[in-house]
Design a protein that fits this description.
This protein is mainly beta and 1103 residues long. The protein is built from eleven helices and 56 strands.
Length: 1103
């Protein structure tokens, strides 16, 4: 057997049972399965039980014929087969001569009868005709269409959950080759072919057998050529005249978008060699609607008399007269920074309100792509195909700041080569190789070195990269700054092989998958020119603290080398599908995965050994090159050995992997990732009308994304962070000084080193256990009904604790001795650990109507409840860590709550209706040809989405009630003292703010939202996910008309509008109770086409 990987084949199967009129099995009957497009036939015989299986079939249309001595020939003229679909075509033979034929026109049953899997998909027609207007988002990729399939939920960043599996638990493939971004652990939608070149997009999230590694699986298959030449020419136009004004915008942004291209497919050699190619280009000239909350002119000069918060002298604590910061106290840096802040232009301009600056700014996008696919029949038993997708994108990204727009370039490439070999009647092998390459880079168009120098900051390390200092405000003012220009290179090479063996009632399948992964990305910790945070703890107002130069925290890094890491992932599987009885099929299998940890080409990774009390141990890879990367200030700040003890605390061991017996990847790969699967499919009434299906399986999450590069450059970057305080009227430091003393290396004091991030060297790969039960029924009239229960438990889910969090205290953090911390030399020591948990339960109902009498539709309702304890205050799916750091690492269970983007109720309906007028239709079929031409060929398409809102979390900024420096560690939650959700919420008051207070404050008190107070020694008691956010109502519709030009040429005129009624689907309101923006929203959500109405006109010539 060849070396195999859980190679996710895209082929389908046609299976069935052949019986005589009495119901007895007919063995040794000859079955021919013919691909109608390519005229290629697979011939086989039924076994002793009358069963047959035609395996490894491309998606397409097939003819099935059955012959047996003494019986008439049985034939089904057309059987549609989708990717990875198992279609049952049973044959009941009639007595007679073989030369006689029984023609069956009925299509295969709507019910899935022979596998536990629950899946749904979009064929090429739906991809082209559903009114999703994905090009309205400035991309030619149809990836966003997937959010309108049953079981899929999206957040506002267009990340998808499939049947409860978060994005990091979902595999995304194109013709069987993974298209997952290595560094982001998210799909790469721009590697998708043009919609013209897509045969099917399929989503599977329930009952994946051992061939599949993840719970969720999104499969896209490309179109191939056939014996008949066919193709298209198209152009789509979008213009702001077709759009509505975005909610919260002052006017419609400028937009003139043109997308044009075509496709061509056919034969190179009849019945043997076929091609299909596409080209698509987009010129998307648009303006982006930008918003920001900026200080008023008075605030910039130190006048806060119109602001509601009290203002005090930060050095004496006394109230400032007239709430005015003396001009002599205002520093150069804030004056320079505010030169890049526009003045308010929306709403009142003399008092600061949320989103008080709004403008439309040019943000053009251009893209060009082509796709080429070749299919070739080598022999009667061997076939090959290959496809290349190529795409370049250029984007301009403006900012509300008075800075030039950024530009970015993306180069996306995807290749697949496949060899399919029917070794014998019961032996098949499929090999695939492919790669996915996605390179992106951002360019700045300003001189950050010069601008930073003009701000006069003192104590920063050498500024190697372009950028600007970061300034963050906690009370609502928009932040400022530019980190190191970003780039990401994600390269994945994949080899897969599947071997199928049919023996009696058993269909065995074995497979293997090898992936070589390489990624490079910019590394700066976001701090290339310094990072300064203000929350008003000194003067009472964060902007005033900035004017005076009193950040509550500052950080900087000296990162010089970027991420450059690689690894390989391996998996093998074995499974069996056995027909226990003609009605009952059992599926069982086992999958093993092995995920070696990342290795950096330069040895630029660091880990932290928490097992050594007080100091821990810092471990870097073996070899002199890794040691040479070490930033000197880093060693000083952690008092690295052989330095003498400091205040009774031993020095920190700074060791290499070979000295402690660790691998150079600094993490041990788990070798026992065994994932058993079991499922059944039962036809209780011995027909294809009803099926009961269910199963149980274990699925591991692949450690990509943050796990892939999280250890990078800790010892080489020397990240330092400093917490400010005022003692006796004197601050620990004040801008332009960026730290308590000295500059460069000498400013690296004890207790300031930042480790972000370590990994548990014995980290356990997260996994989920899924169980499900489905009842499916063919209701007749080409309509099917599915009822499913889906449950999942996520075990060893990743989370990100701070290993250096002290116990809560009533003593301010800055006044506590360093020995209160588990590791006194460090400020924070973040780690990626396993151990969090989640539970998901869902009920799902789906009604689908196959195209008949001009109508097809799919309508699905999902009720879901998803609880997790690995997030702090999530608003989206985020990455595999559950949306960032946790404020209280000592009590993970306090973070248990609703997972934000999982809506409790979601109803999605897709429909296409061809109006019954004109030639061949119910009405006017005999009318005058002119009338037939005008009345016929009309098509209506629609997408209807109704869903409840996300589950959000109340937060507060500024202050440290727990005395643990939680404000820099993670988002803090207030005390809950009432019911926050209103019966009739509005955009200006979506929740009841009075339901929350800063921890320890009295409800109704004048200072209940002032969190900058002395510590009370505890965290807030407000729960995670207790705020019900805005729901969505979205009706998108399309109207099309076909004009027959010639027998095989049709012109299609199309129009489509997303959110046709322009219903205001509100974006998530602000959740910070101390902010003016709490419970307010000034824009519409972007996910699920929920924004303003967007229109599109199109012309397609199909031949």
């Amino acid at each position: 057997m060849p070396f195999l990987l859980p190679a996710q084949s895209t082929f389908g199967s046609i299976v069935g049972t052949v019986t005589d009129p009495s119901g007895a099995a007919v063995p040794s009957a000859k079955v021919n399965v013919t691909n109608l497009g390519e005229n290629i036939t697979v011939s086989l015989e039924t076994d002793a039980y009358g069963n047959y299986e035609a395996l490894n079939l491309k998606a397409g249309s097939y003819q099935v014929s059955v012959e047996a001595s003494g019986f008439k020939t049985f034939r089904v003229a057309q059987v549609p087969l989708a990717a990875r679909q198992v279609v049952r075509v049973n044959a009941t033979l009639e007595v007679g001569a073989v030369s006689e034929r029984v023609e069956v026109q009925a299509l295969p049953a709507l019910v899935t009868t022979d596998t536990q899997t629950v899946a749904s998909g979009l064929d090429n027609r739906m991809v082209l005709e559903l009114p999703a207007n994905y090009r309205g988002a400035g991309s030619t990729s149809p990836y966003r269409l997937l959010s309108f399939l049953p079981g899929v939920q999206s957040d506002d960043s267009f990340n998808f959950s499939v049947q409860g599996a978060v994005p990091a638990q979902t595999e995304v493939t194109l013709d069987g080759i993974s298209t997952v971004n290595v560094t982001g652990h998210n799909p790469l939608p721009e590697v998708y072919p043009s919609a013209e070149g897509i045969a099917e997009m399929k989503v599977q999230g329930v009952g994946g057998n051992a061939e599949f590694g993840q719970i969720g699986d999104i499969t896209t298959t490309s179109r191939g050529g056939s014996n008949a030449y066919h193709g298209s020419l198209f152009e789509y136009l979008q213009n702001r005249a077709l759009d509505a004004t975005p909610f919260g915008a002052a006017s419609k942004p400028q937009k003139v978008a043109n997308t044009f291209g075509g496709s061509l497919g056919g034969r190179v050699k009849r019945d043997r060699t076929f091609f299909f190619t596409t080209f698509e280009a987009m010129q998307y000239r648009q303006a982006a609607a930008l918003q920001a909350t900026v200080p008023t002119s008075a605030m910039r000069s130190g006048d806060f008399s119109r602001e509601p918060r009290a203002l005090r002298d930060p050095f004496s604590g006394a109230p400032l007269p007239s709430k005015q910061v003396p001009a002599s106290q205002i520093l150069t840096m804030p004056r320079k920074v505010f030169e890049f802040y526009p003045l308010p232009n929306y709403g009142p301009t003399d008092v600061q309100v949320s989103a008080n600056f709004r403008k439309n700014e040019a943000a053009p996008i251009t893209s060009n792509q082509f796709d080429v696919r070749l299919d070739h029949l080598l022999t009667g038993k061997q076939s090959v195909f290959g496809r290349l997708s190529w795409k370049n994108i250029s984007t301009t990204s403006p900012t509300w700041q008075l800075l030039p727009a950024d530009t970015s370039k993306v180069q996306a490439r995807n290749l697949v080569l496949s060899h399919n070999y029917n070794i014998g009647p019961s032996l098949l092998n499929e090999f695939r190789f492919g790669f996915t390459i996605n390179d992106s880079a951002v360019s700045y168009h300003f001189d950050g070195w010069k601008l930073t120098a003009e701000m006069g900051l003192q104590g920063l390390p050498e500024l190697i990269y372009n950028g600007l200092p970061g300034v963050t405000f906690s009370q609502g003012t928009s932040g400022f700054g530019k980190g190191k220009p970003n780039f990401q290179y994600s390269h994945l090479y994949q080899w897969t092989d599947n071997f199928t063996f049919v023996k009696g009632r058993h269909t065995f399948k074995f497979g293997g998958d090898v992936r070589r992964i390489h990624a490079q990305s910019a590394l700066s910790f976001g701090l290339s020119h310094g990072d300064f945070r203000f929350d008003g703890r000194f003067s009472g107002i964060d902007v005033a603290d900035f004017l005076i130069g009193l950040p509550f925290m500052s950080r900087y890094s000296a990162a010089k080398i970027n991420n450059d890491g690689s690894t390989a992932h391996y998996a093998v599987f074995a499974q069996d599908s056995v027909k226990v009885t003609p009605q009952l099929t059992l599926e069982y299998g086992l999958r093993w995965e092995y995920h070696p940890a990342y290795k950096d080409a330069n040895g630029n990774i660091t880990n932290f050994d928490r097992t050594v009390p007080q100091t821990g141990r810092v471990i870097i890879p073996s070899g002199q090159s890794a040691r040479d990367l070490t930033y000197p200030g880093f060693l000083l700040s952690i008092n690295a050995c052989p330095a003498p003890d400091w205040n009774g605390i031993p020095c920190t061991p700074f060791l290499q992997a070979d000295q402690v017996g660790w691998p150079d990847s600094l993490r041990y790969a788990q070798k026992n990732d065994l994932a058993p699967r079991f499922g059944f499919a039962y036809r209780p009434f011995s027909n294809t009308k009803t099926a009961i299906r269910g199963g149980l399986g274990r699925y591991f999450m692949v450690p990509l994304g943050s796990f892939y590069y999280g250890l990078t450059a800790i010892h080489a970057s020397g990240v330092q962070e400093f917490t400010n305080s005022i003692t006796g009227g004197t601050p620990a430091f004040r801008l332009p000084q960026v730290s308590p003393g000295g500059s460069g290396i000498t400013s690296a004091g004890k207790g300031n080193a930042y480790f972000g991030t370590a990994e548990d060297p014995y980290y356990r790969d997260p996994f989920a256990i899924q169980w499900h039960l489905t009842v499916e029924r063919d209701l007749g009239w080409d309509t099917g009904l599915r009822l499913s229960y889906i449950g999942m438990r996520f075990v060893q889910q990743p989370w990100a604790p701070d290993l250096n969090q002290p116990l809560p205290s009533t003593v301010p953090y800055t006044q506590r001795p360093l020995t209160d911390r588990p590791f006194p030399y460090w400020s924070r020591v973040y780690s990626y650990d396993s151990g969090a948990n989640a539970i998901y339960n869902a009920a799902q109902t789906e009604v689908k109507h196959r195209f008949r009498s001009g109508v097809s539709f799919n309508s699905a309702w999902t009720w879901a409840k998803h609880l997790s304890d690995n997030g702090n205050a999530p608003t989206s799916w985020g990455n595999e860590l559950g949306n960032g750091r946790i404020a209280n690492s000592l009590d993970r269970r306090s973070n248990r709550g609703n997972v934000a983007p999982t809506r409790r109720h979601r109803w999605i309906t897709n429909a296409i209706y061809e109006l019954p007028f004109g030639k061949g239709r119910r009405y006017l079929s005999q009318a005058h040809p002119l009338l037939q031409g005008l009345a016929g060929g009309w098509r209506i398409s629609s997408i209807l989405l109704l869903q409840t809102g996300p589950y959000l979390t109340a937060t507060f900024s500024g202050g440290d009630p727990s005395g643990t420096n939680a404000s820099v560690r993670g988002t803090q939650r207030p005390d809950a003292v009432g019911s926050p959700n209103l019966d009739n919420p509005t955009a200006d008051r979506f929740w009841n703010r009075a339901a929350f207070v800063c921890p320890g404050r009295a409800p109704g008190a004048a200072d209940q939202f002032n969190c900058n107070v002395s510590p009370i020694g505890r965290f807030g008691n407000g729960g995670v996910g207790i705020l019900l956010g805005p729901g969505s109502i979205n009706l998108s519709m399309g109207l099309g008309k076909e004009f027959r030009i010639k027998e095989r040429a049709t012109l299609k005129v199309e129009s489509s509008f997303t959110n046709l009624p322009n219903h205001p689907n509100l974006a998530n309101p602000g959740t910070d109770i101390t902010s003016l923006a709490f419970g307010r929203t000034t824009s519409a959500r972007g996910g699920d086409s929920g924004g303003n109405r967007i229109g599109q006109f199109g012309l397609r010539l199909v031949f």
